[in-house]
Design a protein that fits this description.
Length: 303
């Protein structure tokens, strides 16, 4: 790959054409320690719909079959088989299958991972910003799909994985990202919204009353809801749920039983935890935990 993002000697990968094979939903998620614990998801959905949520990481992947419909911010979009998808961190979005369902392979790379890869390519630790979410790029599609297939294999070679990741993610950033854009400034929101977020972050493990949250923010309940949604893009409850799921992901890397993780993250019981977690991540908490070691967890998980 050259400095302009041209792919050379690309892993051909392959597109899984046609409609998603089989009936029902399927999802397998694992994490790659060599790439900052990057989550990797191989899924086919004909029924499952994602709730509105955000990711602390980028979202990068390919649609391998069918069509996914999703709302990104205030825009309704559709991603079709053969297209590439890229989404900045902390962007509110959902996802649902069109009539024929969809299959996709997704990566969730951290900002730090992009910084390191782009520093290798450009000499500067820059981070891309993607103004366009869905785009056509057959060569890049093959590179991303090939990397994903390779990492899903039980015995992928580290050198091959490093080369393919550098090629795919750097080409994505150089071809389609804005390397001059600055991250959204941390703190343009009203002081009251910042206080509300801090209060919610401090109460992930306990029930939160709107009256208490409004008192912490110094606003009426009605005014708080208006300014919070305008600044954050979701309600205080949506924000709190996202943060609880993110906290749960970190706890699932440890030894706590699922029931204790649920309580530590403010869910009323394990069934509630399972439902909310899967609605935002695509797999249940137990499946997410087993995905920690893709070498041992070689069987795909049926949703």
């Amino acid at each position: 790959m050259d400095q302009n993002g041209a792919l050379t000697h690309a892993n051909p990968g392959h597109a899984e054409s046609g409609t998603p094979a089989g009936r029902g939903d399927f999802a397998r998620l694992w994490r790659e320690p060599r790439f900052d614990g990057m989550e990797c998801l191989n899924a086919r959905f004909q029924r499952h719909s994602y709730a509105l949520h955000t990711h602390e990481t980028f979202v990068v992947g390919v649609i391998t079959a069918g069509t996914e419909l999703f709302r990104c911010g205030v825009v309704d979009l559709a991603a079709h088989a053969g297209q590439v998808v890229a989404l900045d961190p902390e962007i509110l979005h959902d996802g649902r299958p069109a009539d024929d369902g969809f299959a996709y392979r997704m990566f969730y790379p951290s900002t730090a991972l992009f910084e390191r890869l782009l520093e290798d390519a450009t000499g500067q630790p820059v981070v891309p910003r993607f103004a366009t979410t869905v785009f056509e790029d057959p060569e890049l599609f093959q590179a991303i799909a090939g990397l994903h297939h390779g990492l899903e294999g039980a015995h992928h070679e580290p050198l091959r994985a490093d080369i393919d990741a550098l090629r795919a993610f750097t080409a994505l950033a150089l071809r389609h990202g804005d390397l001059t854009a600055r991250p959204r400034p941390a703190g343009p929101e009203p002081v009251a919204v910042r206080r509300a977020r801090e209060y919610l972050d401090a109460h992930l493990d306990s029930p939160v009353e709107l009256a208490d949250l409004a008192t912490a923010a110094g606003l009426s309940r009605f005014h708080l809801l208006r300014v919070f949604r305008a600044a954050v893009g979701t309600t205080p409850h949506g924000y709190l749920t996202d943060r609880r799921v993110s906290h749960a992901k970190r706890l699932l890397a440890g030894p706590l039983p699922l029931a204790e993780v649920a309580l530590a993250c403010g869910f009323c019981d394990q069934a509630h935890f399972n439902r909310v977690f899967k609605g935002r991540v695509g797999v249940a908490p137990g499946h997410y935990r087993r995905g920690s070691n893709p070498v041992q967890d070689t069987a795909a998980v049926a949703a």
